[in-house]
Amino acid sequence: MSEVVISAKSVGKTFGSGADKVTALDDVSVDIFQNEFFTMLGPSGCGKTTLLRLIGGFEQATSGQILLEGKALNDLPPYKRPINTVFQSYALFPHLTVRQNITFGLEMQGVARKQADDRAEEMLELVRLAQYGDRVPSQLSGGQQQRIALARALAPAPKVLLLDEPLSALDLKLRKEMQVELKRLQTETGITFVFVTHDQEEALAMSDRIAVMKSGEILQIGAPREIYEAPTHRFVADFIGDSNFLVGNLVDDGAGKRAVKLGGGQVIELTQDVSSQRSGEVTVSVRPERLGLVAESQAGDNQLVGTVSTVIYFGTDTTYQIDLGNDALLTVRMQNGSGAKADFAQGERVGITMSPDSIRVLAD
Ligand code: ATP
């Protein structure tokens, strides 16, 4: 396991006082590792920018601590931290050339002119803009300006680079390109990237680990696959990808294993480790692509059955809405051309298949 670079220990942050008091962060703890692409993901107002600003030193925590390599950062001002930030607005100096934009900070830190110039060339190579050193920012496209902002932030070789929604000003195509580019820069430099976004696809595509935030709290931290396939909370399952939610009861399957009994009576043994302390009604989440359909005549005893209410053909897959009765709808996504029958018609009665490992029991 690599070393922890940044630790947040029970960090709280409030703004204002009295009736205007806002809790931006509530008892947040997280360890971020060396050489990690770490993303804080959540909807507007969940506190992700505040956490980033605390790490950068632009705000002070109301309670708890931020540590860098085990040492409390406390009142250390931003410029004394080996941490740099790339803002959404790029914040390049308009009257300086690209090269000067990069060398400026280095020279302020006392790096000799020649060395700063060499470093600038190295950084321009890194972001693949070696021939643009003599231009001024207004002569560059948005994507190029973004790369220069990155080159400038990476030039002093910070231990941590903070990125606050750096791609949100770019159009979709450029954004996708820059996602790949950012990932490459992180891997090549080995610098820890702490990235803030509200875009779940972006988070899944780039991150080693994601912290999903809601209302000032971190709900789940994990690798993209873990967050997607094993969401712990309804909010996480809903915010990242599509999910179906079913209500069932936790039971023992008779062989000492934990299982969920769904509304129709179907009992599904769980592969998930659910505490023996839990019992009674639970909500489970299941991804649409982890469900399948069979003709009703092939459905087993107690298997969930319903009526196809909508069919949407997407080329690679077909998405079905299944009406289970009592206003309960289920979304099922089946790959086309995979061999399984995937051409059910509107109005057809169908049985729903699901494998045990597709079912996730959510936290209360
Ligand atoms: P967004 O994606 O919209 O930037 P966010 O998840 O980054 O949202 P924060 O900017 O961290 O959220 O804000 C968290 C909460 O703290 C919000 O309710 C916000 O209004 C509040 N907040 C942030 N900064 C301040 C401030 N300087 N003064 C008062 N309230 C603030």
From TrEMBL:
Pfam families: ABC_tran, TOBE_2. One of its GO terms (cellular component) is ATP-binding cassette (ABC) transporter complex. Residues 6-240 form the ABC transporter domain. The keyword Translocase applies. It comes from the Bacteria. Its EC number is 7.6.2.11. GO terms for molecular function: ABC-type polyamine transporter activity; ATP binding; ATP hydrolysis activity. The complex is composed of two ATP-binding proteins (PotA), two transmembrane proteins (PotB and PotC) and a solute-binding protein (PotD). PANTHER family: SPERMIDINE/PUTRESCINE IMPORT ATP-BINDING PROTEIN POTA, SPERMIDINE_PUTRESCINE IMPORT ATP-BINDING PROTEIN POTA. NCBIfam families: potA. Part of the ABC transporter complex PotABCD involved in spermidine/putrescine import. Responsible for energy coupling to the transport system. This is Spermidine/putrescine import ATP-binding protein PotA. The gene is potA.
